[in-house]
Amino acid sequence: MSTYAAPLHDMLFAMKEVGGLDAIAAQPGREDLSADLVEAILEEAAKFAAGQVDPINAPGDKVGARWHVGHTVTAAPGYGPVYQAFCETGWHAMPARTELGGQGLPTLVSTAVAEMWKSCSLAFSLCQMLTQGAVEAIAHHASEEIKATYLPKMVAGTWTGTMNLTEPQAGSDLAAVRSKAVPEGDHYRVSGTKIFITWGEHDLAENIIHLVLARLPDAPEGVKGISLFLCPKFLVNADGSLGARNDLACTSIEHKLGIHGSPTAVMSFGDGPGAIGYLIGQPHQGLACMFTMMNHARLNVGLEGLGVSERAYQHARAYALERVQGRTLVAGSRSIIGHPDVRRMLMDMKARVEAMRALAYYTAGQLDRAASHEDASVRAPCQSRVELLTPVVKGWCTEQAQRVTWLGVQVHGGMGFIEETGAALYLRDARITTIYEGTTGIQANDLVGRKLCREGGHTLDALLAELRTDATRMVAEGRASGTDDLGHSLLQGVQALDGATRHLLATYAAQPAAVHAGAVPFLLLTGHVVAGWLLVRLAEAAAAQLAAGAADADFLRAKLTTARHYMAHVLSECAGLQAVVQTGAETTLGLTDAQF
Amino acid sequence: MSTYAAPLHDMLFAMKEVGGLDAIAAQPGREDLSADLVEAILEEAAKFAAGQVDPINAPGDKVGARWHVGHTVTAAPGYGPVYQAFCETGWHAMPARTELGGQGLPTLVSTAVAEMWKSCSLAFSLCQMLTQGAVEAIAHHASEEIKATYLPKMVAGTWTGTMNLTEPQAGSDLAAVRSKAVPEGDHYRVSGTKIFITWGEHDLAENIIHLVLARLPDAPEGVKGISLFLCPKFLVNADGSLGARNDLACTSIEHKLGIHGSPTAVMSFGDGPGAIGYLIGQPHQGLACMFTMMNHARLNVGLEGLGVSERAYQHARAYALERVQGRTLVAGSRSIIGHPDVRRMLMDMKARVEAMRALAYYTAGQLDRAASHEDASVRAPCQSRVELLTPVVKGWCTEQAQRVTWLGVQVHGGMGFIEETGAALYLRDARITTIYEGTTGIQANDLVGRKLCREGGHTLDALLAELRTDATRMVAEGRASGTDDLGHSLLQGVQALDGATRHLLATYAAQPAAVHAGAVPFLLLTGHVVAGWLLVRLAEAAAAQLAAGAADADFLRAKLTTARHYMAHVLSECAGLQAVVQTGAETTLGLTDAQF
After folding, report:
1. DSSP per residue over A340-383, as a string?
2. Is residue B447 part of a domain?
3. pLDDT band for position A533 (cuts 50, 70, 90)
4. Most buried one in A370, A400, B232, B458, CB count within 10 A?
């Protein structure tokens, strides 16, 4: 087993050079946020992650959360004390706003910290993530009374939160939600069955606050008839103490491929008189409230792709540096990292991990600008860009994580297939990330539909113009520092993305099915190019620092090599992806159902 | 759960149109082999596969083989009766030569039959595969006495066989084998520890015949000092009855990601006086004997990639045709197969499965020609082509299987992550196939080293010339039937492979590490192009049959669409792969170990 070491140098470099940390720290109200403080926070988080969270991951996977007759769920071994310490030391509350009891740090900083939890244990990290999403939804949409009753304990982690969307007959199609809510005095009686409820039941916290989508008696059909209700596991008395058990129960948990430490509950609401629930937001406006959680969750699942990939990379690297086997071809390397193909796999993992980090941190930085830049004319385009990139962060990072965690197993050879080695755990955990919070297909449909074609491509065009300007500048100015090759490669990627974009915009009105047939390849192409742009910017910064005589020359030179590797091995796929987008739909839609 | 239906129509079409079934049936000594007989064999095998083998797969995965104190292993539930029926009905013996008690059928036919076992249960099928490999090694290299004692029972499946290569310190590096064999009268005393021994211990058969690599006392170092020994679990008396327990034991079995029904044993030889073993072949020539097994096994593992992919495709297709969810965009499709992205995933799976089958069957057909064509000037190039394609069948098919089984999970959405759905089983089982019998990296090194550069590229050049001729002809002749587009696409693939080949040949002497850094992308490129060629040939045959007014027009038209889909979605990756081979090595080898 390898041990986790947070890649602090890489993280800080990406936060500064593409996340815009300095500019965010210079925003009004951020006077207390210095680079030193950020570094100190990251160092403390790294200690907690490596010392507390990483060690519970493999044992938690092996045993998993356990369901008992009587509808209780025991958390995986070791989770209890670590969760308690996580709350007591303030890490649980950290990402929340100051007025809610959190640290009020920029999203960029809490993103880097969250990456560490996700690296060390996806299963464990999901509990906080779901609670945080529920906190956001309540903070934005609930009454003052509900906020006062629930938020302080949820932010602190004393109570946790869930998101109850999916029903057996309604997976991603929320229009088909059937759960009901009937008014009764100041509250409602909620009934229905929900599945795939992450951390829906467990014994880590005193109470669990379920946010539940259901229909009021007078609700119109479809997604415009869904309302959001808060149903606590234990009802809360006026003095804040816990009262009676609500009429809801976890009737089973799923037996899954991965994230065994995260209980995935089947929740039954209203087997008796109906679960008492409180309306959040306006009647029939539940979807809007839920989107507050979902956008947060989508960026966070993208970050899971990064986190689990970083961990799989560290695990494979440790093995490749230690395991001696056969005669190596790379001078100076005695272990299997000296075999060119093992080196290729590790470089591929490293390049994709750094590309994911650049994309996730960039988007987090844009979110901070969108939220609190003093100039509204800056905030608006940043917000549009975040909306454009949300499905890309989610879809692209999680797809890259499939390859990275797969390679992590492959580097181990036969040992990779043995569970005790630990490499397969990351592959199994990563497998959910392209599915939950909307599959890659759903992200891609959002990207080509709502985020591209329905707004005429303005937001992507603005981004493409920025990429083209940067690439052109690098070609011109890079000759001196020898980085013009990066500009050339980037320009090719930009052209491929631009071509595919024109094709989709021209095709959408007449052939929507053809556009959606190319949606996932388009999402991958977008991710390849935008992340490539950010890696090139990191390389440009590294070249400048090298020219200025910076001390960490090995680190900076590696940034240049890694960017070039990405160009040669990943960005080289762009022409193929463009071809699939532009010419692939005919055969995708070419067979009848019976011909499959 | 879906049920398996062997794709007999597809199988027979590929056997005839690219496997060369008619020509093989016309070989001398094959007078009894008619198309009707082949079809009848396949139909019977399909019944046994679907009725007996498929149903034990999921329960066998859930419980797995179990090791007990006392060094016994209980096979997974249901395996016992099915194995017995498998032997009694002659399916176990079927692939062997007539003189050994088998059916003496062409490899092409036994390949199609084996595909079915692999589709229905990789774990179960491994027992026969290992035994068959041991039978081949014994038949080629052992004394008449040993052959007479062991082969009849092994062919019948009454006794099973294993391959004992790997040791804890020697994974793929057989030069590091340390197990010892000391002469004692007419036999040897063997001692050492072997790991990853597939079906190394179980209760399905009366005896287990271990083929073990070990060193004689006077052995030179390295791979030239390894000899092969036969060590039976129970010693065999002169009358063929079973005698004393030999000094060998299964000290544990592995806890693996997949193939739970296949016990992967740690074998300890000679904890007492040493296991009695009999030398197979000449002293120090064990590697050559083992290669007889390994080449057989490599083609078979490639076939596993096909088999598990076909099954994953059938499983996903059944779900996509049944599950109703959301508003579909494809006219006439009410279930999720009407969502363009789900359709894209299924088309991708279908196209890759058919491409794998074409490649595996083509190679099996070449093996038959190499073995028994009447003309030696035909046999020799066929043998060279089989040797060239063996690492491609193994490496490329198993890599495609990763994507296909992954998509199989993705098509199921959230249900795919739940073990009871069964889709994840195929992903977990498939994961071993790029590792055992030599990782993809090892296959690729064999391809670019021994099979390409060290022989100056003659065999691949001959193949490329054939592809180019076919492509050029199709461009010229295909205009009438509207299939010239397939010729154009193929030509592009051939050019990419040709360019990459020239690069490797020119680079090998001066920069072997750079060549091996591009080995896996080159193997993928080779597989893409050669399998694409065969799909195009299938399409060409389909077009001709359509023009002749064949009855199964829907099936034949689907062959054309599938080939075109492969061209647009898979062959379009070739230019990117060529770029990686030609320009990717510099950064792959660009960092020091410390910079990772």
Report:
1. HHHHHHHHHHHHHHHHHHHHHHHHHHHHHHHHH-S-HHHHHHHH
2. yes
3. very high
4. A400
Number of A–B residue contacts, CB under 8 Å: 268
Written in H, E and C, the secondary structure of A439-500 is: CHHHHHHHHHCCCCHHHCCHHHHHHHHHHHHHHHHHHHHHHHHCCHHHHHHHHHHHHHHHHH
CB B421 within 8 A of CB B366: no
Q: How many domains does chain A have?
A: 1
* Distance between B578 CA and the closest CA of chain A, angstroms: 9
Whether B93 maps to a domain, the answer reads no
Torsion, CA A104, CA A105, CA A106, CA A107, rounded to 10:
-90
- What are the tens digits of pLDDT across the range A254-302? 999 999 999 999 999 999 999 999 999 999 999 888 887 888 899 999 9
Q: Are the C-beta atoms of residues A158 and A128 closer than 8 Å to each other?
A: no
pLDDT-based confidence at residue A1 (cuts at 50, 70, 90)? confident
* Three-state secondary structure string covering A115-180: HHHHHHCHHHHHHHHHHHHHHHHHHHHCCHHHHHHHHHHHHHCCEEEEEECCECCECCCHHHCCCE
In a domain, B111, yes or no: no
Task: Please give the residue range of the domain that contains residue A547.
Answer: 439-586
**CB within 8 Å: A520 and B564:** no
How far apart, in whole angstroms, are the C-alpha atoms of residue A537 and residue A486?
Answer: 10
Contacts of A564 in chain B (CB under 8 A): 586-587, 590
pLDDT tens, A432-456?
999 999 999 999 999 999 999 999 9
Return the active site residues of B: 437
**What's the pLDDT at A345?**
98
Query: What residue type is assigned to position B371 of the chain?
Result: A
Per-residue pLDDT band at B305 (split at 50, 70, 90): very high
Contact assessment for residue A354 and residue A10, using Cβ atoms and an 8 Å cutoff: yes
Average pLDDT over residues B378-402: 97
| DSSP H helical ranges for B328-412 | 340-372, 376-411
Q: Is residue A205 part of a domain?
A: no
Q: How far apart are the first and last CA of chain B?
A: 44
- Examine the predicted complex and report whether its ipTM is higher than 0.95: yes
| Token couple for B84 | 């017995």
Interface contact B595-A561, CB threshold 8 A: yes
Residue B29 pLDDT > 90: no
- In this structure, are residues B505 and B456 in contact, taking their beta carbons and an 8 Å threshold? yes
More confident residue, B479 or A377: A377
A173/A165 Cα distance (integer angstroms): 10
Tokens 């230019």 sit on residue: B575
Q: Which residues of B108-130 are buried (b: 16+ CB within 10 A; e: fewer)?
A: bbbbbbbbbbbbbbbbbbbbbbb
CA nearest to B303, candidates B124, B430, B131, B448: B430
Residues of chain B found within 8 Å of residue A588, distances taken between Cβ atoms: 340, 343-344, 347, 565, 569
Give dist(CA B534, CA B20) in Å, integer.
12
